[in-house]
Amino acid sequence: MIWRNQSRITWSIQSLMTKEMIANTPKPPYYAVIFTNLRTSIDEGYEETAELMVKLAKTQEGYLGHESAREGMGITVSYWESLEAIQKWKVQTAHQIAQERGKSKWYQSFKTRICLVEKDYGFEKI
Q1: Helix 46-58 with 93-101: angle, nearest 10 deg
Q2: Bridge-based pairing state of the strands 73-80 and 30-39
Q3: Which of 13, 36, 40, 45 lies in the 20 to 30 Å Cα band around 106?
Q4: Domain that includes residue 26, residue range
């Protein structure tokens, strides 16, 4: 996971130790939700809410993983088994509260895109 820290990228020690920086997704097809955002200067409650949303998303049926980066603009990509799983996450009560706080406090602007992943490939140096 990546956290905002005075316009620099900082990596959590847990993510570095567990190699969670690139999500381990199954063979396609699956779905990606791309959340691109610009933050306001308000930080109060943001980190705690982001941590809670990650923990909560991991418990949702159909959740496959996520990746996140921020340096100026933030981008989080979460991966899901189905459109139904994405919709259930969108209307999950705590997530809806976080979305409203995001609109009122933390985000200057954002855009969400939902895509079907038809193909993926990668490389990992061992």
Answers
A1: 150
A2: antiparallel
A3: 13
A4: 2-117
